[in-house]
Fold this sequence. Notes:
Blueprint: H1 2-8, H2 15-24, E1 28-31, E2 36-40, H3 46-57, E3 64-71, H4 74-79, E4 90-101, E5 107-110, E6 115-126, H5 130-151, E7 160-162, E8 166-169, E9 172-182, E10 193-203, H6 222-226, H7 232-247, H8 257-262, E11 270-275, E12 278-288, E13 292-296, E14 302-305, E15 311-312
Parallel strand pairs: 3-4
Antiparallel strand pairs: 1-2, 4-5, 4-6, 6-10, 7-8, 8-9, 9-10, 11-12, 11-15, 12-13, 13-14
Helix pairs in contact: 5-7
Amino acid sequence: MQDLLRQTLAPLPHVQETLENLAAMGCQIERTPAEVRLASVGIRAWRELLVELARRERWRIGRQVHVLPTASSTNDRALLAIEAADGDGLVVLADQQTAGRGRLGRQWVAKSGQSVLVSFLLLDVAADSVDRLTLLAGLAAATALERAAEQAGAGVPRIEIKWPNDLQVNGKKLGGILVERRVAGGTGAGGSQGGTVVGIGINIGQGKQDFPPELSGRATSLFESCGRMIDRARVIAALLSELNGFCARPLAEEAWLGAWKARCPLLGQTVKIRSGERTAAGRVLDVSPLQGLVIRDSAGATHFFSAQTATLVD
Length: 314
């Protein structure tokens, strides 16, 4: 990644001028008597890095990249491009988010420099594939985080996925996924084609003191899980690589489902779940990409809950 960044910058005649240019883009440079090392990629260099990666790897997601110092919601910014002819594959990144949201209207606020906040737009996802896309995005994010930690030489935590959209380490929330669909022009229904935005928020650099009291003991970060800081640009590049790998295959393909289930700690557990006015409790039997969570209650009845409308009750 560091070699690619250097190649995307305009050629400069002197090493010192190159280093100054990197520093001006927010990159952190570490100098020792033996070497000069790029320690982290500044946010102002993210766009050039990712667009070049997308070009070389022929990625669908990342052909266009918008990087914002602050956004109310990266999902909202990505949704604005639904009617654009070239909107498919757009990536929106923010250093800070002030009015982000999670599932079912929950708030997701992130301070500057601490998180990966990214949304990407797909223009050909059918309405009945949204649940499946939520699961795929979680699997891609979990795999990417483990890969980024390994590449950085850090301890690799086991990332679990709490149905339907939470990333966890040792039972603590590390991140979440919010998939939203909107039909261009406000028309169409059922299985019609529209724009689908996948928003992913991941805690990267937070320490215990950075989480609000209500999340104390319930949230964690990649820094806490690995024991060292991981460059956010490394995480983003790994995430886009995994997402493109999954999205290059038909969403109807279910070869990935076994890998997803292996990361789900809920299978076999007894849970309580709510969808609107409907509440049920039972043992988790399965996760169906078409229908959602499958549970069996104490009377032996089977219930299906969609990832779009249901939530687990603590």
